[in-house]
Amino acid sequence: MNSSHQRWLLEQLPQWEREGLLTADAARTLRERNAVDDSQPGLAQIVMGALGALLIGSGLIAVIGYNWDDFSRPVRLLFAFLPLLLTQLFSFRVLQRGEASSAWVRETAALLQALATGACIALVSQIYNLGGDWPDFLFWWMLLSLPLAWVLRSHSVAIFYLIAIAIWSVNQVDRGRPWFDSPLLYPLLLLGLLPYWPGWKNQAPLSVSVRWVMTISAIFGFCSLEIFVIPRSSDYFSGYDAQSFFWLWTLTAAAFALFPLSQNGNEEPIRRKPQVVLGSLWLLGYGVAATFRDVSDDILKGASHALQLPCCWALLTVLAVFVLLASLRKRWAVLAIASVALLPLLTIPFVQSKHAYDSTFLSWLVTLHLAVIGITLIVLEFAGKKGAPRLGATLLSVLIIARMADSHFSLLAKGVAFIGVGVAFLAFNILMSRQLKKKQAAIV
Amino acid sequence: MKTLPLIIFGLAVLAQWAAPLSQIWTHEQVLAKGTLIKLKCSAPDPYDPLRGRYLAVRPSQSQAAVPAGVELKQHTQVYAVLTTGTDGFATASSLSPTPPASGDYIRVKTGYVYEDKAWIEWPFDRFYVNEKLAPEADKWFAENIRSVQGITAEVRVFNGRAVLEDLSFDGKPFREILKARVK
Asked: How far is it, in rounded angstroms, from Cα A155 to Cα A46?
């Protein structure tokens, strides 16, 4: 239950007590169980604080951008350092007040200081006509701002940092860069957030918005890293490179979906686990694409090429550990979806000949595998266990449409089949809605 | 008040001051002690969203010779040895992976390397101007595009570092020419 649900529940309790729906003891227990942690800022507070700070910071940058060339260099340098000093004093005061400072003030102070830091570096480089690439500027700006996310527990600075490290990594994929100036640094940069999450006492919860940004940042960061480590003879990508990326990204998606969770994390609703949502979406899309022979042909070539790379084996090792941990937590549904990524490994020994790959085996294996997953998700629900019947039905429908699309049947036959699948899908949806109503009626 | 967050905050504040101050120190050293060299260049007028209007300084020399026996890689820092010609303009006469023992030199980045030549990225590429002057620079370039003299970049170099001090045309500071046109 998130904090807005808890607040709503706490607001209802006095009324329910008055109406006799709850005893005083029951109400007290509910209050204790659903106590709202007010030290965590609400979304509206973050947005308002961040917006105010952003406006002031942007104004500051625009004033600097005017370039006051009538003033001497020392005066212009004073313009650069004065806002930085003021924002630092503001943050210090907020830090000094500790818990007495409200969450939105902390957010505003941290974001203002981060923006003043960026503006100061920008103005110094303007005064001295320094060149330099914007990724270098971004790199130093985000590093100098990172401690503010730790000490002021600022969500907006953490989000800025996560976006910045992803943009920086994507920009550094060119061949021939030293490791410390390449996406190989991304995992270390991501670890830089550790004092913010899980925090000094290993207890800090992560808000849903930061989770989503962190997942998207990690996707871009790790995918850039994989592009960088694949050896290339030139600045351009060959067909083999692209095919290898595709499979390595799929293994990464599987690792994301299977990322180890605590028991509490495992029980959280799916929308609070963006790594599972985005990882599974990629894997299902990849699975459906792999049912087409042309695509599975490319996947096989890419997998064979990638298996010669040490980074691929490192990724497979990480994945094996995650599979083991997910098995211990009994995350069968996610394991079933993630297993789609490993199907090329099963087929490579059987289909590789000297001159070509016969990908028919892989495309049929993936079709069968996805069909089994779809059916299992439906059957689990009817067997009284936790399933996902609508997802299962969607998967089966997409598979039928995909097979019909690449078949040699006439347009008339395909049209009839599509209508049939559509009707069956709608009928299944109606059936599931009735089942749900019956269940709810039984509970009442 | 907890001590650890305060210590970290203090260190962050120090770092936020140290980063720009170290830049200022380095560039003031170059401006105070560096040798003044002149480079032929062009300078059209783009825009930086963070730092405002600037003139993109493009030295006319974009390649330099790689001495025989020296192997240079792409995207690496090397040293361009500067030689001043009879016309008073400096050129990068050769590239070296290590700083030369004497003479003026600038640290540059290599681009594409081909046989005995390498493309170079100069360490300065922009000259910031007031946003009132920048559009005037565009007009000036349109009118003087066929000028054989071109713009001169006045650069101070010291221990491989370079600071673009001014742009000039026909011996006059370019900024002053633009200011006179605006009036």
From this structure: 8
Cβ-defined contacts of A145-150 (< 8 Å, 24+)? A145/A113, A145/A114, A145/A117, A145/A118, A146/A192, A146/A193, A147/B8, A147/B9, A147/B11, A147/B12, A147/B15, A148/A91, A148/A110, A148/A113, A148/A114, A148/B12, A149/A110, A149/A193, A149/A196, A150/A195, A150/A196, A150/B5, A150/B8
Respond yes or no on whether ipTM tops 0.85: no
AA identity, residue A238: S
Is residue B111 exposed (0-12), middle (13-18) or buried (19+ Cβ within 10 Å)? Answer: middle
The C-alpha of A65 sits at a distance from chain B's nearest C-alpha, in angstroms, of 4
Q: Which domain holds residue A282?
A: 240-406
Query: pLDDT tens digits for A83-106?
Result: 899 999 999 999 988 878 888 888
Give the whole-angstrom CA distance, residue B24 versus residue A123.
11
> In this complex, is the C-beta atom of A71 within 8 Å of any C-beta atom belonging to chain B?
no
Secondary element (H or E) of residue B119: strand B117-121
Residue A402 domain-assigned (yes or no): yes
**Cα separation, A378 vs A399, whole angstroms:** 15
- The verdict on residue A214 lying in a domain is no
Q: What is the DSSP letter of A41?
A: P
Over residues B70-103, the pLDDT tens digits come to 888 887 889 999 999 888 899 999 999 899 988 8
* A426 backbone φψ class: left, alpha, beta (φ>0; ψ -120 to 50): alpha
Contacts of A176 in chain B (CB under 8 A): 73-75
- A353 inside domain: yes
Count of the separate structural domains present in chain A: 2
Residues of B with Cβ-Cβ distance to A95 under 8 angstroms: 1, 5-6, 9
Could you report the per-residue pLDDT of A127-171, keeping only the tens digit for each? 888 877 788 889 999 999 999 999 988 888 999 999 999 999 999
Domain boundaries, chain B: 1-33, 34-182
Tokens of A401: 């449409």
The pLDDT-based confidence of A217 (bands split at 50, 70, 90) is: very high
B144 touches chain A (CB under 8 A): no
Whether residues B20 and A128 touch (CB distance < 8 A) is answered with: no
Residue A334 lies in a domain: yes
